[in-house]
Amino acid sequence: MYGKAFAPEYRGALGELSVNSSIEEVLHTATEQLREAEAAGSDLESAHAGLAAAEAARRLGRVTEADRAWRASYRAARRAGDEGAMAWAVWSGGTLARQRGRLALARRLLALAAELAERGGDVVARGYSLAGLAETGRIQGDYAAVADLHEKLLAEARRRGEARHTVWALEGIAQMHRNTGAHDKALEMFEEAASIALRADDTRGHAWALRGIADVLSLRGQTQRALELLSQAEAGCRRMRLAGALAYNHKMRGNVLFRAGRYEEARAVYEEALAEFREMAEPRGTALATLGLLKSRARLGEDPARTAAALDALGQSLEGTGLRHVREMVDTARAELDPATAGVRR
Asked: Does the keyword Coiled coil apply (predicted)?
């Protein structure tokens, strides 16, 4: 049995904040608490408040602000001599690095966070740090390397009855099944994640699960139902001001519309998602939205030579990023739009 979802990154005096608190509210409250903690000379409370501020800024897409905040949180935790608090700060930094597309840095920071958490005896921080490592490998497309870790983390989360972490693990494994063609299994796991998140009152997890369900249903031709689920998820994202989740929701709406042959609508939604990703400096989302936009324009009659050149530029921009799965998607798109180039990597 799973209890109500909670947010372990809201710590100390901020521990009463809900997992569904508006991110703007979290940032405001954390900033006020940070001022009070610094005035009182409490390094540990400064670390806790700085962590919440860092995570809120990251989720709002304010990456420079988030970068300053997690580093300040780490310094305060180090002064306090609390390795658990240090682990949480470094976890936030690693998560931010992944969001910014700096995957090698993300792996280093998340591995360090897991080590600090283990030394500090913070089981939850260690689990979140290992989960971050698993997610980093997954978005790179390195499924073989992280599948076992995902499964292990899922088993641990189930054993402890942690709804939020169980939902995350289910969604990660489901995404790997979806990307490797096991759509039935993916749908089953996304639906379980949605059910657990709903019962646990985890708006963020529920929104991501609905996005996954919509994706699989769209692949089966259930366009209208997929769009309805995305609208439901979008409402939650807007209520909490989840900038990243909202951008990915819009990108998926573009995918659903594109698959249904509604290319003009898809083009408009991809443009919206692209602007959102660029505003938060999110390279993976930017690449995916750009790819969708290029494919939509091609279906609407864009000059083939211009499309090919744009796809080449997009592919080249991904070289060295570690985003192997996205790079493969670009190659697949090139082959779909110009069969003569199938199997040719430019």
From this structure: yes
